[in-house]
Amino acid sequence: FLAEFAGNREAPEARLLLGRLQRLSGDSKTAAETYLALYKEVAAGTPGYPPRLSFQAGLRTGEAYLATKDAAKARELFLGLDAALGTALAALGDNDPLRPLFTSLQSEARLGEGYCLLASGSLSQAKTFFQSQVTAAEKQAARRFGARLGLGEALLAEGNARAAELEFAQVSAIDHTDQDRTARALVGLAESALALNARNDAKLWLETVRTQHGDTPAALRAQELLQKL
Q1: Under 8 Å CB-to-CB from 64, ≥6 apart: which residues?
Q2: pLDDT tens, position by position, 68-78
């Protein structure tokens, strides 16, 4: 499509989907490049590329960087995205239909700092960060669930699998805002269960990811763990 219809109005969406497919196939490095190119073009004001697409591509770029363990690039991306979204939100009216989406994207960009801390091995700082975000996000579902997921991953990384399991369970059971996050929480539950020698529970959650959330980045990790059981 992109080769034959590069000037089509659907080309920006196709590029966003291409980046996602690269992530799903395990090629996060190429996905980051695809997303970043789109992010920069939209930010530069390319005609026909809506700002919404820029912010979504920017967020996915940061996530792809984290998947490649490049916390420095991810942090830089998230900080810039947070600032850009703040400017965009200030220009929107209170009832603008884009406000909920931009607010949600900004929340995820701000949570990026915690995931960067995790990726760089600063577990104590990451845990403190996510705990503060859970408290501050009482009325923001995406921010609250994202913070609980991060808190669960920090707890698991420091060896507290039982506490991590509780955080992952809340996200996987009631998060209605993001399928990718739900699937990642289920993988977290499985990893917590394995740490607690509950192999049957782990297999159940991994199979759930494989059968119900196969179109998420977490599916690859679920498949890897299933092969070891």
Answers
A1: 19, 23, 28, 29, 31, 32, 35
A2: 999 999 999 99
